[in-house]
């Protein structure tokens, strides 16, 4: 889970700019720049780093010391070098599901960064297919299930983002299970509750096992 690393990086960025702006103002400038740049750079560490540099230029009116840019680059490199720490019970759950279901990893972000994290995680061996998307919207998920020759009602997405993992899958007629995480990027939050027959929430990933057994409409050919 990368979210704690990004939150730590944002704090370091704000500390870097403390001579120019208060913490909250520096954070808001960085966040605004990131969101504006998503159509250009997509998601991931590289886009985040470029956004930090652009935010520095905006905050300092292009007059900031180059050491600020060096600092932003150092923050980005440090994220890329961070270890991949698996959430509790993730691997044991994948082991239990493997063989009974076709398991697919659907993630978004920079290709090289996602491939690096997957390699470090040691989880690739559990997946039938790995899909690295530039974004996660209903069109992306529709392409995925078309590629896998899977009916929407036989597809189940398990994720921790209501905006990117859950809503798009429900929109195409799939099933979605939300596993909350205590840190969520502002851009991934939604301002309404989800009420849907195919939406479910569990507190931990290991609860997926008894949940799947209770769903008679999901067969062993179902994607997760």
From TrEMBL:
One Pfam family of this chain: Hydrolase
InterPro entries assigned to the protein according to its UniProt record, in alphabetical order: HAD-like_sf, HAD_sf, PGP-like_dom2, S-2-haloacid_dehalogenase
Gene3D superfamilies cross-referenced by the UniProt entry: HAD superfamily/HAD-like (3.40.50.1000), Putative phosphatase, domain 2 (1.10.150.240)
Coiled-coil segments on the chain, per record: none
UniProt superkingdom: Bacteria
Keywords noted in UniProt: Hydrolase
Keyword Hydrolase among UniProt keywords: yes
GO molecular function, one term: hydrolase activity
Matches recorded under PANTHER family: HAD FAMILY HYDROLASE, HYDROLASE, HALOACID DELAHOGENASE-RELATED
The protein, known as: Hydrolase, haloacid delahogenase-like family
